[in-house]
Amino acid sequence: MKYKRLFISSLVWMVFALTMVINFIPFFILWVISIPFDRQHYFTQKLTRYWCSGYVLMYPFWEVELIDKHKLKKGKPCIAVSNHQSLVDIIVLFHLYAYFVWVSKIENFRAPILGWVMYINRYVSLDRNDPRTFSKMFEGISLALKKNKTVMIFPEGTRSLSMELGRFKDGAFKAAIDNKVSIIPIVLDGTGKLLPKEGMVISGKTKIIIKVLDEIPYEKFPSYEPQILKEHVKGIIAEELKLLRAIN
């Protein structure tokens, strides 16, 4: 059984690497063609959305349940926040077919192909080891929100080892307060079993649940202090995660 999982994992990673290279070719061509008239990067972001969602559809052992995805409204600026269990989170969240502008660590932007796609899509980078880059990150978030984009942030900042919620950082909530935009909490579960943080072996059949929770309008924030707001949102996500696990 162990060797079977290793074989399947190796095969999945090979397919992933190969398709990354193959899919980048039309992505790059589309970007070059659309530069003169697509200032919002609509076409490349849309292709990225289908590209990542294709992995979910292609892998036969993933059962992904989407709940209330209609609560993500296109064309309305907001900050979306989700718990973070695995590298797979980014791929499955694209299965919501939403136009996310991601905030991600600078190391991802330096990766071949992945980083190029992120730069082209104008995602927002952050060097966690250099506090001087934080102001640039907030400028990037504000610019995306002014263009009516949904900015996607993992407030834990890193993947959870235990699949339980870690400590939330202030950044996402400070950005929502400063720009006076809504927060949309998202709960996901199951990806930590599929591909844990410490390991590259992909598990077999796994059910993944993604639930979009009710929007929290700026006017209804319980506090305009990031430290208090983040604990409020964390409590909402924690409670919903507990309920999902009780049902499933």
Give a summary of the structure in a few sentences.
By secondary structure, the protein is of the alpha/beta class. The chain contains 9 helices and 7 strands. Helix 2 packs across helix 3 and helix 7 crosses helix 9.
Structural class: alpha/beta
Number of E strands: 7
**CATH classification class:** Alpha Beta
- Biggest β-sheet strands, sense, barrel: 7 strands, mixed
Helix segment count? 9
Mean pLDDT over all positions? 88
Spatial strand arrangement across the major sheet: 1-7-6-2-5-3-4
Number of domains: 1
Sum up the overall morphology in one term: globular
What CATH architecture do you see? 3-Layer(aba) Sandwich
H/E element string?
HHEEHEHHEHEHEHEH
CATH fold assignment: Glycerol-3-phosphate (1)-acyltransferase
Distance between the termini: 25 Å
Beta content: 15-25%
Q: Give helix % range.
A: 40-55%
As residue ranges, the low-confidence spans are none
The whole-angstrom Rg is: 18 Å
